[in-house]
Structure formats: C-alpha cells, structure tokens
Amino acid sequence: MSGAPEAFRLDGRTAVVTGAAHGIGRAISIAFAEAGAAVACVDIEADRAAATAETIRAAGGRATAFACDVADEASIRAAAEAIERGLGRARVLVNGAATLDVGGPVLETDLATWNRVIAINLTSAFLVTKAILPAMIAAGGGSIIHIASQLGSVAMPGRAAYCSTKGALIQLAKAMAAELGGQGIRVNTLSPGAVETRRLEFRFGDLEAARRANVGKYLLGRLGRPPEIGAAALFLAADASSFMTGADLLVDGGYNAV
User: Fold this and answer.
1) How far is CA 188 from each of CA 47, 94, 223, 235, 244, rounded to the nearest angstrom?
2) Which CATH number do you get for residue 158?
3) Which of 97-106, 137-146, 182-191, 244-253 has the least mean pLDDT?
4) Is 162 a catalytic residue?
C-alpha cells in the first residue's frame, strides 16, 4: 500500500468501518488500509464487504469482512466480538452505515419508513459505538467518526427523516466527545455534500441525472468523489487531527457557503 506522512499514518491500528460495501464506506476502508490500518469492513451485504476487503488485500493491505445488520443489537455485538478476536482492539471507528431511502413529504412518510431510517442512520451509530467502546478504551483511546451530511446543518424538502438523522449525528458526536475525551477518545462528524455513489443513482436514476440536478448548487461546479471523503476521514482518524473533537468537518464543495 502507498505511503503517507507520519501524522496521517494508521500503522498498528485496527479500524472498523460500517457501510464498507459501497461508495463512501468502501473509499474510507481503502484509505485507511493505504495508511497502514487493519480494516474491519462491516456491512449487511456480506459479499460486497468481502469485495472491499479483497481489493485491499490485493493491494497489499490488511482487511477482513464482517457481516452485520446494524439495525440489530445482537448482530452488532457478535460482529464486535469477532472483530476483536480477528483484528485486535479497535482504535478507529467509522459509523457510515445508512439506508437507501427515497424520502418524500411528511404527510406521505409512514411510520415504518421513518423508523427504518432512524434505526440505520442514527441508532446504529449509538449501538456500534457502545459495542466497540470497551475495546477502544482498553486500547488507550482512539477516534470515532460519524458520517453525517451537509443536510445535517441545512434542510431539503422531502428529506425530513434523513435530515433529522444527520443533524442528530452531529449532536451525538458532541455529546460523546464531551463524555469520552478524558479517556483519550475523540469523536467527530464528517459531513459530505453530494458524492457520486449508488445513493445518488438510487435517488436520481443515474449519475448523469444527479449531476444535472445538483451541480449548480456547488461552488466547485461538480459533485464529490468517494476518495475525497476517504481522505477527509483519514484526517479525522489519524494523529493529524489530534486536537480535534466534538467538531463537524464539512466537505461539501461549497454547498453550505452561500
């Protein structure tokens, strides 16, 4: 795997990434492995998580896939135990799992849909953190990153559930940072803008349609790319951000600037 300045290295550290099968989670997993981490690629889509891990191993890195339903506490606990047995105590955790929801007006959003978005986007971050924390504390500390969104700080019509979860993740990180700082654990959020992933394909039909609908909202005149979010996550995970906790890192191409 490629080298990096020492402050951006993760050598000797185990990193856990949920939502590692696709898009941003996959890019973060690869970035961490390139920086020297042993990566636990966690996802409910076991075959796709395995593909991410195999890509890392083929490039000379260390990674193992773990199947997990982040909406199920028992599945999370089992995955956490398996990760510690297989890769050691986690020093980095990225809560990146999120459901593909179509959104829609409040009056047309049923309770089951609302609850599903809350469970996967928000509650899973609490449950996975709770399961990983004992090992991280025992390891002497680490970095926890919740993947929020530009829509955690600004809103969009038809996205009540999604915006609610992403805003809550920003506050959850602040509360966890306040609680865990004394134990050497930093907690931050990473808020991407629109990134060219299957999520945009799901919402708009294909990436070209997503570009047509969204590019004009971004000062840089384009959408984000998964490796750009991977690089930002590496900054938050590594010692380069060692004096940063309870913060939200906005990587949105200028969407929120105007």
Assistant:
1) 29, 10, 23, 11, 8
2) 3.40.50.720
3) 97-106
4) yes
Q: How many CA atoms lie within 13 A of 128 on its CB side?
A: 32
Residues 60-84 have pLDDT tens digits of 999 999 999 999 999 999 999 999 9
Beta bridge partners of 145: 94, 188
Asked whether residue 1 is domain-assigned, the answer is no
The answer as to whether 201 is a domain residue is yes
Number of domains in the chain: 1
Annotated catalytic residue: which of 32, 162, 218, 255? 162
pTM: 0.95
Q: Which of 39, 36, 34 is nearest to 50 (CA)?
A: 39
Its domain, for residue 218, covers 6-253
- The pair of structure tokens assigned to 129 is 């953190």
Is residue 124 a contact partner of residue 70, using CB atoms and an 8 Å limit? yes
**17 in Cβ contact with 24 (< 8 Å):** no
Give the pLDDT confidence of 43-62 residue by residue, as tens digits: 999 999 999 999 999 999 99
- The answer to whether residue 235 is domain-embedded is yes
Dihedral of CA 3/12/179/176: which sign?
positive
The answer to whether residue 114 is domain-embedded is: yes
